[in-house]
Amino acid sequence: MIAVWIVIAVFGLAVAIVASGRAVGYASDLAFGFNVPPFVIGAILVAIGTDLPEIANSIVSAVSEYGDMAAGVATGSTITQMTLVLGILPFVGGTIATGPHRIVLPGALMVVGLLVGAGFGSDGAFTRIEGLILVAFWITSAVLVYRQAPEAGAPVMIAAEGRPASALAGVAVSLTLVGAGATAAVMAFIEVAETMDVPVYLVSFFAASIGTSLPELVVDVTAIRKGEKDMAIGDIFGSSLIDASLALGIGPALVPLAVDGGLVVRSALAGAVIVALLTFALARRRHHDRITGLGLLLAYAALYPVLLA
Questions:
Q1: Contacts of 197 (CB under 8 A, 6+ apart)
Q2: Cis peptide before 215 (omega within 30 of 0)
Q3: Would the pLDDT of 297 be above 70?
Q4: CB–CB of 15/177 below 8 Å?
């Protein structure tokens, strides 16, 4: 049975990889057609698509009364994307511009979202009102990120001008396939873990969060190879912001959740500290290279003994 789930995981990842290439191409066309900076396209539109597995997990976990799974994947994905995924990118595409005008606002909003989530979950539950507040916080954050959009960075968009409606439809279909493929892979990973009798929280925070972060990794690597570095960095910060707010809140907004308050607080606070330090460092250096990439990979590795303790 484990072999079957492994096959499903491989197939799901293959679908996500193929669809990601199309998603980046259509997103580039959309940015050109609407004259929207690639960073904003990545931080809002692409981020929603690559975060579909986390959003779906929150809803399914809430309906199935697996509160720890919903909270663990949301906070775990935030940390995984801001350390492991972001740390890999400069090794793939070289130095990436990260001036303050790009990352300070989404980074600060992410820290606030994580702290609010820690406060809400500290009593061992997420109420419907708390879930709605987190969803509203993301909507407000998306508006702020859009209004303070940076100018398009190098390289200049090279997509040919086309019909925005067609590009938007292409983005929607492609990202749906990315989300579907990644979700199938995540479900397979979880089934394998449960067959091997691994605790649910460990599966959600570590294994499942890695699986749900695969769309970000695949799409961002593809974007960087196509020269869309602004879109890639925008997606990382945008999808992590979604995890810290929308993905965490949408489940309890539908069905109140019971969670392990201690684990929620510990993981959310660890994420807030990491995001704050990372945002400050990248804004000060104004670029993300292999040095900061290595630091992020080491930070991710350090989370295992810290959180497992």
A1: none
A2: no
A3: yes
A4: yes
DSSP reduced 3-state for 257: strand
At 146 the three-state DSSP class reads helix
Coil, helix or strand at residue 126 = strand
**What contacts 293, CB < 8 A, 6 or more positions away?**
86, 87, 88, 89, 90, 91
pLDDT digits (tens, 9 = 90+) for 163-172: 667 777 887 8
Q: Does residue 292 sit within a domain?
A: yes
Helix (H, G, I), strand (E, B) or coil at 160: coil
Strands 96-97 and 287-288: antiparallel
**Pairing outcome for strands 257-258 and 96-97:** unpaired
Q: Average pLDDT of 279-307?
A: 90
Q: Say if residues 151 and 37 touch (Cβ distance below 8 Å).
A: yes
For the chain, give the number of residues. Answer: 309
Residue 56: which domain range? 39-151+198-308
The closest of 84, 68, 300, 83 to 204, measured between CA atoms, is 68
Structural domain includes residue 246 = yes
Would you state the pLDDT for residue 158?
43
92: in domain: yes
Please check whether residue 231 is in contact with residue 99, taking contact to mean a CB–CB distance below 8 angstroms. no
CATH of the domain at 279: 1.20.1420.30
- Residue 32: per-residue pLDDT: 62
Domain membership of residue 270 (yes or no) is yes
Q: Can you tell me the distance from the alpha carbon of 217 to that of 177, in angstroms, rounded to the nearest whole number?
A: 15
How would you label 248-268 residue by residue, b for 16+ Cβ within 10 Å and e otherwise?
A: bbbbbbebbbebbbebbbbbb
